[in-house]
Design a protein that fits this description.
With 447 residues, the protein is of the alpha/beta class. The protein folds into two domains: 189 residues, Glycerate kinase, MOFRL-like N-terminal domain (Rossmann fold, 3-Layer(aba) Sandwich); 164 residues, glycerate kinase, domain 1 (3-Layer(aba) Sandwich), CATH 3.40.1480. It has 16 helices and 15 strands. α2 runs parallel beside α3, α9 packs across α10 and α12 runs parallel beside α13.
């Protein structure tokens, strides 16, 4: 059931990584220059004199509108125009920048049209213009212009199979980049402006610019050879459209140009700053917990691997805390990252809800413990929930209503199970996207 302290800690984590707030707090605009002094390091970006060049804002990702709104607040009417592409339902009203919406995690026709409109702005920029590119997780599915020889349907099928096949996010993005005309550094190739600055919110473990949103504005270290190995590893060669497999094989043979690499002149003079990451959010939740008198244990900010295995580890740590508790302060356990959940069942849910259901099964009968597992972007998989709450009584409460937790888990129907108990956490779009956050609370006694 919902726990007020867990909600407070999750909200603190989200606020610390919200794009709009970060840019307003950490950047200023002066005559001929925009200055940033926040996470990732200080940078100055030249602004053209009025009438001698334009200031353009483009970008993509679930929280791209939040970052764009921050730039509007700082730069005001210095911005001439722009286009950002976000997931359906994640738009925000902007004054000078158009906000378009598209499908995620599986691309749709709206995303294709939005990508083409965004690229028109990119390609129309002159050498005298300054372009800001705001980037967050979700851009990999939103920026979907197919590479020559591939169709939109090819990209849709490849995305769906990779997401549901259990591939790691970096593997998914490597393949996507090699099927795209815009990610993997190719978008930057189309921008002629000398002054170019990417402002990113990281949704990947390790915060690699090449991985965030499939790196549309940076060099790409992955190769066609790696992509072929990935689809073979997950047994997707026969399931993928033949055109996709042949495209990757032609790349291995050198018949298609590789994505631009580090030594390319394309990226000379470009700036790139990661303004928020999962670590920032976890640290903010930890500070908020300590301010409320709790002891804090940060398990990891690199939680990954199979969702079930991560949930078992998290529940075990909470059980250990429950076994060791006395009359001391409550203990808060934190873990951040992004797990992988292969989809084989016919039910409804996301990795955070399934994480919570696994934890509920492991913690059944343990008094004084609660868990919230949620996506910091406000959406967990193809659902309207960010995640879910569970505690030691969840399985018993469900049983009293005739609901068998193991049966729902087998069908991967965590959403229906948790919704019936009133234990889903619905936040709506949050204005950030720094992966997932699991928060465990162990009271010194029954709450």
């Amino acid at each position: 059931m919902a726990n007020p302290l867990l909600i407070e800690l999750f909200d603190a984590a989200v606020r610390a990584a919200r794009g709009e707030d970060l840019l307003i707090a950490n950047s200023t605009a002066g005559p001929g220059v925009w200055r940033y002094s926040g996470p990732g390091g200080a940078v100055e970006v030249p602004l053209p004199q009025p009438g001698r060049g334009k200031v353009l804002v483009t970008g993509a990702g679930k929280a791209a509108a939040s970052l764009a709104r921050g730039l509007e607040a700082v730069l005001g009417d210095r911005i001439d125009s722009g286009v950002v592409l976000v997931k359906h339902g994640h738009g925000q009203p902007l004054q000078r920048i158009a906000v378009l919406e598209g499908g995620h995690p599986v691309p749709d026709a709206a995303g294709l049209a939005g990508t083409r409109q965004l690229m028109q702005t990119v390609e129309a920029a002159s050498e005298n213009d300054t372009m800001f590119f705001v980037l967050t997780g979700g851009a990999s599915a939103l920026l979907i212009e197919p590479a020559p020889g591939l169709s939109f349907a090819d990209l849709q099928a490849a995305s769906r199979l990779l997401v549901n096949g259990g591939a790691q996010i970096d593997e998914i993005n490597a393949v996507r980049k090699h099927l795209s005309a815009v990610t993997g550094g190719r978008l930057r190739q189309h921008a002629r402006c000398a002054a170019f600055c990417t402002l990113a919110i990281s949704d990947v473990i390790g915060d690699s610019p090449a991985a965030i949103g499939s790196g549309p504005t940076v060099a790409d270290p992955s190769t066609f050879q790696e992509c072929v190995a990935i689809i073979e590893r997950y047994g997707l060669c026969d399931a993928l459209p033949r055109t996709v497999v042949e495209h990757l094989e032609r790349g291995v043979a050198g018949l298609i140009a590789e994505t631009p690499k580090e030594k390319s002149a394309t990226f000379r003079g470009s700036h790139y700053r990661i303004v928020a990451s999962n670590r920032i959010s976890v640290d903010a939740a930890a500070r908020a917990a300590r301010e409320r008198g709790c002891k804090v244990e940060i398990l990891t900010t690199e939680m990954q691997g199979h969702t079930h295995e991560a949930a078992h580890r998290f529940a075990a740590a909470l059980r250990d805390a429950a076994s060791a508790r006395g009359d001391n302060a409550p203990t808060v356990i934190l873990a951040g990252g992004e797990t992988t959940l292969p989809v084989k069942g016919s039910g409804h849910g996301g990795r955070n809800q399934e994480f919570a259901l696994i934890a509920a099964l492991d913690l059944q009968g343990v008094d004084g413990v609660s868990v919230l597992s949620a996506g910091t972007d406000g959406t967990d998989g193809p659902t309207d929930a960010a995640g879910a709450f569970v505690d030691g009584s969840t399985v018993a409460r469900a049983r009293a209503r005739g609901l068998d937790a193991d049966d729902f888990l087998r069908r991967q129907d965590s959403y229906t199970f948790l919704d019936a108990l009133g234990d889903l956490h619905r936040t709506g779009p949050t204005g950030t996207n720094v992966m997932d956050l699991a928060i465990g609370l162990c009271y010194q006694c029954r709450p």
